């Protein structure tokens, strides 16, 4: 096991995180996602999997419950050396991130807001989930994905991924370099994708100049599209965190230097400032969600201060009639080979009836514990807005 610095070990102890989880990193399979999965035939997908298995010299299979995800059994496989990676057919992404994105239950036609979108792997997946999956769904259903991130550097990476890998989905993706705590731009105006609708409305548009996306197609950057005021059908708040649940991320500090790990997790005011940031992101994401919509709050941390206690404060402000924490069905009982979820953290005893009631409301939230799930660590809460 890695020899973590004392400050980090103290952080793990305070958050009831077993340091042994990091031993799992070398034992877990690699995961990747087949890009443009919906646009490929079954025979093309089968051929691609056979090619990867032959090159990686290990078993490779689709994860049935997480659309387009591959399980590569050898944890030492270097994805960037595979021909499928070089050709832009696959990209690396942990299955825990796929679970968070799929928990939104995105449907064709939805307007989706990814409030902390960079570096962009989940955003690309959300865009593909908007595509019609069968003939029953209207072919002209045009949903959108709006990505927001405060970091220009990270957003540049996201833009590169969109340009390189999104294919035809690029037409309904737009990106804003803004602070997710204060972002307040509505979903693109209905009919933004129809030239006739846009042309007909041109004479009646107000003189005000709306805030245009930092990146998007001409149609997405049109004045008409940018004047939308509707709230979003789905909101993902995959919040900034200390990344202590990302096994590969933490283990890399053994090479980079443990002082950088201290700076990332426990230095200065991080234990206090990060949960506050997360609370603000969650609250603003909730304000941008329409009634009847779904919000997913997730982190790749196993810290109770960044997960259960953030959710606790949120539920303390919002009644049971306004918000419910819903089950994440694809994780129930590990069906179809999906990761097995673990219960959330809660105190050994409650201080009063209110605390007990709020923790009871959040029991459908889940943890992905690397010792049980076979994935990196993740906290996921799926919230439905009723008013």
TrEMBL record:
<feature type="active site" description="Nucleophile">
    <location>
        <position position="300"/>
    </location>
</feature>
<dbReference type="GO" id="GO:0003723">
    <property type="term" value="F:RNA binding"/>
</dbReference>
<protein>
    <recommendedName>
        <fullName>SAM-dependent MTase RsmB/NOP-type domain-containing protein</fullName>
    </recommendedName>
</protein>
<keyword id="KW-0694">RNA-binding</keyword>
<feature type="binding site">
    <location>
        <position position="149"/>
    </location>
    <ligand>
        <name>S-adenosyl-L-methionine</name>
    </ligand>
</feature>
<dbReference type="GO" id="GO:0008173">
    <property type="term" value="F:RNA methyltransferase activity"/>
</dbReference>
<dbReference type="InterPro" id="IPR049560">
    <property type="entry name" value="MeTrfase_RsmB-F_NOP2_cat"/>
</dbReference>
<keyword id="KW-0489">Methyltransferase</keyword>
<keyword id="KW-0808">Transferase</keyword>
<dbReference type="Pfam" id="PF01189">
    <property type="entry name" value="Methyltr_RsmB-F"/>
</dbReference>
<dbReference type="GO" id="GO:0001510">
    <property type="term" value="P:RNA methylation"/>
</dbReference>
<feature type="binding site">
    <location>
        <position position="179"/>
    </location>
    <ligand>
        <name>S-adenosyl-L-methionine</name>
    </ligand>
</feature>
<feature type="binding site">
    <location>
        <position position="238"/>
    </location>
    <ligand>
        <name>S-adenosyl-L-methionine</name>
    </ligand>
</feature>
<keyword id="KW-0949">S-adenosyl-L-methionine</keyword>
<dbReference type="InterPro" id="IPR001678">
    <property type="entry name" value="MeTrfase_RsmB-F_NOP2_dom"/>
</dbReference>
<dbReference type="InterPro" id="IPR029063">
    <property type="entry name" value="SAM-dependent_MTases_sf"/>
</dbReference>
<feature type="domain" description="SAM-dependent MTase RsmB/NOP-type">
    <location>
        <begin position="23"/>
        <end position="386"/>
    </location>
</feature>
<dbReference type="InterPro" id="IPR023269">
    <property type="entry name" value="RCMT_subfamily_9"/>
</dbReference>
<comment type="similarity">
    <text>Belongs to the class I-like SAM-binding methyltransferase superfamily. RsmB/NOP family.</text>
</comment>
<dbReference type="InterPro" id="IPR023267">
    <property type="entry name" value="RCMT"/>
</dbReference>
């Amino acid at each position: 096991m890695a020899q973590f610095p004392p400050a980090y070990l103290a952080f793990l102890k305070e958050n009831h995180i077993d340091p042994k989880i990091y031993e799992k990193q070398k034992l877990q399979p690699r995961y990747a996602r087949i890009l443009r999965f919906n646009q490929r035939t079954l025979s093309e997908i089968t051929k691609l999997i056979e090619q990867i298995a032959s090159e990686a010299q290990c078993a490779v299979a689709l994860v049935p419950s997480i659309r387009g995800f591959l399980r590569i059994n050898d944890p030492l496989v270097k994805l960037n050396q595979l021909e499928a990676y070089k050709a832009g057919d696959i990209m690396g992404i942990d299955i825990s991130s796929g679970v968070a994105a799929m928990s939104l239950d995105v449907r064709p036609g939805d307007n989706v807001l990814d409030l902390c979108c960079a570096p962009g792997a989940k955003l690309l997946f959300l865009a593909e989930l908007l595509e019609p999956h069968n003939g029953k769904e209207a072919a002209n259903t045009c949903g959108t994905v709006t990505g927001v991130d405060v970091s220009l550097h990270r957003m540049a990476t996201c833009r590169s991924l969109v340009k390189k890998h999104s294919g035809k989905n690029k037409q309904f993706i737009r990106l804003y370099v803004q602070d997710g705590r204060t972002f307040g731009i509505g979903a693109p105006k209905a009919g933004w994708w129809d030239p006739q609708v846009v042309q007909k409305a041109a004479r009646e548009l107000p003189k005000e100049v709306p805030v245009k996306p930092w990146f998007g197609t001409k149609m997405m950057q049109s004045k008409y599209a940018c004047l939308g005021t509707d709230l979003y059908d789905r909101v993902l708040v995959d919040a900034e965190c200390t990344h202590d649940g990302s096994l590969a991320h933490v283990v890399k500090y053994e090479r980079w230097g443990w002082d950088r790990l201290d700076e990332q997790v426990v230095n200065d005011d991080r234990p206090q400032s990060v949960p506050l940031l997360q609370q603000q992101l969650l609250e603003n994401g909730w304000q941008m969600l329409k009634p009847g919509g779904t919000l997913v709050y997730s982190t790749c941390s196993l810290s109770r201060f960044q997960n259960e206690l953030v959710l606790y404060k949120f539920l303390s402000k919002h009644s049971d009639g306004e918000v419910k924490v819903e089950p994440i069905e694809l994780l129930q009982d590990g069906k179809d080979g999906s990761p097995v979820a673990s219960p959330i953290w809660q105190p050994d005893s409650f201080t009063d009836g209110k605390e007990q009631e709020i923790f009871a409301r959040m029991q459908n939230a889940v943890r992905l514990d690397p010792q049980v799930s076979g994935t990196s660590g993740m906290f996921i809460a799926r919230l439905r807005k009723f008013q």
